[in-house]
Design goal:
single chain; alpha/beta; five-stranded parallel β-sheet; 41% helix; 16% strand
Amino acid sequence: MEPRSLEQPLILLVDDDARTARLLARLLEDDGFRVELATDGALALARLGRTPAPDVLVTDFRMPHADGLAVARFARSIRPDLPLFVLTGYPELVARLGRGLEPEAVVHTKPLDYAALSAELRSSVEAVSSRAAGAQPSAPAPRPSPTPA
């Protein structure tokens, strides 16, 4: 998988409250992210099976068809280093049920502190991109031209 430009990382935003999700998507787009929206867990699972893969998953916890942790686990089965953010009014429940996600999902409690979310999203994308760039084999150094004798 080729790393994408940091200018426009792709976020898959999953929330069954369409009005809230559209508002959050607009804010994220204004901050330079590309956003795809899924309005329930089943739609998110279907989207995760297509390319391009998102750079970040931001999901609500309680949703119809599949909750946010089911979506997160499926996403990590495809891409183990995918940054996960769970938005919830039930942070203790997410912490208890989300054990075993490595690296752990970042949990943001509703009502959302958008500035904190945006900063953490940017930081997560940059960290994954840095790791991916460091893991790629570097091109061999050019050999010096033979000098005429």
